[in-house]
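Weekly sync notes, structure subgroup
Attendees: PM, AL, DS (notes)

Item 1: joint prediction request from the bench team. They want all two components modeled as one assembly rather than separately. Inputs as received:
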Amino acid sequence: MATLNPADIINAGEHVFIKMPSDNVKCIVLKAGSSVSLGKFGTFKANDIIGHAWGNSYEIYDRDSKTRVYHPEGISEVEETANNNREIVDDPTSQKLTLDDIKALKSEGLKGELTGEEIVNKLKESHATFDKKTAYSQAKYLQKKGKKFHKVFTPIKPTTYSVNEYFYVKNPSKIRDIRMDTLSQLLSYSNVHSGCKLLVVDDTQGMIVSALAERMGGKGTILGLYDGDNPHYDIVKYMNFDQETLDTIKVLSWLRIHRPADEKTPDEMQDVTQLTGKDLEGYHRRLKAYNIVEESRKVLFEGNFDALIVASQYQPESILEKLLPYVAGSRPVIVYHGTKEALLETSTWMRRSPDLLAPQITESWLRKSQVLPGRTHPEMSTWGTGGSLLTATKVIDQPVQAALTKRERLAMEKKNAEAKKLKRAREEAESAGSSPAPSLAAAAAAATETAATDVATMGEEEEITTTTTATITTDGDDEGRSVKRAKQE
Amino acid sequence: MSLATKHTFATYKKNNTIENGDLVVLYLSKENLILIRIQESQEFCCKFGNYKHADMIGLQYGTKLGSNTGRGFVFLLYPTPELWTLILPHRTQILYIADISLIMSYLDLKPGKVMIESGTGSGSFSHSIARTIAPGGHLFTFEYHQERVAVATKEFEDHGLQDLVTIECRDVCKNGFGLVNKADAVFLDLPAPWEAVASAKQAFRQDKVGKICTFSPCIEQISKTVTALTEQGFVDIKMYECLIRFNEVRILQISTLDEALEMERASEKKRKRALPRVLRESFKNRLQQERDSQEQDDDQEDMEGEGEEEGESAVKKTRVDDDDNASQQGSSTLSSAVGTPSSFRSHADVFIPDESVEPRESIESKNVTVTRLPVEQRGHTSYLLFATFTPATQQPSLTERNKTAAAASK
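Output from the run, pasted for the record:
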C-alpha cells in the first residue's frame, strides 16, 4: 500500500488556503503552535490540522476552540409543497429576534455555547412566515443563515487550480486576468511534461511558471527571462514546491544574457588566497551568484527549447524575434495576453514569418452552474474575460529538397530555355563556319554552367537553396507564399 | 523499456531527428494532417506531391519538406496528444482540447498520479492523460465495447504508451472497477455515470483527497449524478461548461465615404449615357439646390489649376442644362480636392464646416486588423461535473446513515 507523501498532508510553515462558510477564501502561512483567527467564524489551533491529510472540513466547537472533522449533511432532495410567495410580504418584523438577540446568539456561538446549527434553528423558529415559504425558499434561507453562523472551515491545498482561482477572484490584474480554463489550455498547447525544457517570459507574477513547474514534477528546466531587478515570481511561493521542483526554475535577466562590462568573472575577482572571514564569505557569495548566472546563460545558448511561452506586457514580436532561434523544430510557440486585440498585430507578424506555422487566436468561455436537486441552473453572475492565447508551431524553413515555389520553377525553366537558345545559336554560328573549338567549348561551358546552377537550385547544396528561398521569403513576399497557400488550402 | 529510448507520444525524442520506424505527423494544411510511420521503402502520395520516407530520415522534426515533383510541400511534425486529438479516427464522440485541458487541471494531474477513466471511447483523452502523468503515474482505462478495446490497445502499443496505460474490457456500471484504494482521480464519460459512483468511491485512495469528474451532455444526467455523489459523501460539487472561440484574423481595407463616392462618380461617369432623361432632370435640380447653398469662392480657388478628368474647372462654370457636365461636376469637385480635406466640399457634406477652425483630425482610409468568429461554432460539448472525495471519513452513504438513525429512534 502506497504511503502518503509530504504533499498530501498539511505541513507547518506552508501556505494554506482556508475556505470559510461564507465561501470566502483566506490565505495564511500555517505556523506550528499558533492560533488562527477566522473573524466572526471563530479561532482554531494550527496544530489541530497539521499532519492531517488534505480534503476534510473541520468544525470549531466547545469553549476551547476544539476542532473535529465535519461531516456535511449533504444536499437532500427538497420536496415541493403547495406554497408560493403570493402572500409573502417583505417585512423586517417577520424575524422576531432583535438585532441584540442575534448578536448575543453569535457571541454564544463564538464561545462555544451553541453550535451553528442550533443558532440557525432558533432563527428559523422565530421567523413568523418561515412556514409560508416554498420548500426551495426554506432551503435557501437555511443555507444562507448556515453560511453566516456555522463554524466550519476547509483547508484547501494550493495547486495550480486553487491558486489560480484564488487570485482570479481576489486580484485578477496581478495575474493579468489569466483564468483557469485559458491557463489549462496554455498547458495543453505547450505539451509540458516531465523532463522538457521550456523558455518563458512571464509577467503574470509567476502564475504561468508555477503551472508549468507543477506539470514537470521536478524534472526538466524552465528558463524565465525577466527585465528589472527581479523576476517577480511571487506566486511560486504559494505552491509549496519542494526543493527539487524549485530547482527546475532558472531565471536570467535580459540585461545579463551577454556579460555586461561591469560583471567580473571569478578570475577577475579578488585573489582568494588573500581573503579571510567576512571577505571570504563575500567572495563565495559573489562566486555563487556568478555561477548561477553562467548556468542560466548556458541553458539559453544550448537552445533546443521544447516550447516558448510569452506572457509579457511588451510587444510580443519584439520578444519572439529574439527568442525563436532558440526553439527546436516542431515545438509550440504561445503568446498570452489579457486582451485579444493586443495579439492581432503579432498574429499578422507570425503569418509572415517563415519560422512559424498556423498561428491561431483563441479565447475561452467558462460558465459555472449551481447544482442542487430540482434547482439546477447557471449562476447569476459569470466571468468576463479570461485572457486570449495566440499559438503557433515553430518550423524549420530550410527545405532540403526541391521545394521550389512556382516563381523559382519558372525562373529555372526560363534559364534553361535561354541556355538552350544560346547553345543552338552557337551551334548554328559554328556550323556556318566560325572556329568550332572555342564556341563549342563556350557552349559546353554555358551548358554545364546552367546545369550546375540547375543542380544547385535543385537543392543538392543546402546553402544555395537556402539563399534562394531566403530571398524569396525575407523580402516579405506575401505573394509568393500566398500562391503556395492558395494551392494547399 | 524506459520512455527515453522508445519513441513515444508521451515525451520528445532526445535528438529531435527522424529515424526509420519513427512516427511523423504530416501537416498538409490546417484541415489535413496525417500520421505515418517511417519505413524506408515507402512513399507518401497526396495532392501536394510525393514524398519518399527515405528522404525524411535524418531530417529534424519541424522541417518543411518539398515534394519530388517540385510542387507543394509538407511539414514534418512531432506526434503529440494534442495533434492526435485532431487526427484520430473517431469511433465515438471524443473530447476536445477545451474539456481535456480543464478536466486535467481540476483533477490536479501531474507526473506520478494514478487515474481511472471510463469509457475509453476513441482514446482521445487517454493520450493526454498518459503524457501528463508520465513517467511515474498510471492510467486505468475501461471500455465495455470489445472492438474499441482492441483498437485502443493497438494504438497505445503503437504510440509507446503501453507502460503507462492499462486498458480493460469491462462494464463498470454493472461490475464496478475492481480497484480498491488506488486512484487519485476518476473520470466518467458514461451514459449513466451515477451507476459507477459507488465503485469509484471504493477505487479512490482512501487516505487522501481525491477528485472526480463526470462528463454528461444532458442536464438530466447531471441531476442524477449529483444525487449519487451527495449520497456517497462527495463534497464541493460544481458544474462547468467550457467552450473555445477560434478567431480568424482578417485585414480590412476600409475607405472613407468621400473616397467611395469619388469612385462611384467616376464609374457613374462611364455609365452617364445610360442615364435616362427623367433622372437627369432630377439630378440637375438637386445639383442646383446644393450649389446654391455652397460657398463657391473657395471651390473655385481649389478647382483652378488642378487637373480634372474632363478639364472642366469651377462648379460655377458648369451649365446646368448641359447634360454632359452634370455628372462631371461632382467628380471634378472631388478629384480636385482629394489632397486638401480641410477645404473639401463634397455633395455628401451634411453641414458646412467653419473654414476658420482647423479640423480636429484628418480622416483617411485605413487598414484595420480584425478578428471574426466563423458563423458555425461549437455550442455545447457536455456539462463538466466536478466533486471532491474526502479522506479517512469512511462514511457510510446517506441512505445507510438515515436507516441507522431511523432504526435507532425506534
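Discussion: Confidence is low (pLDDT under 50) at residues 1-5, 300-343 of chain B.
Action: AL to compare against the crosslinking data before next sync.
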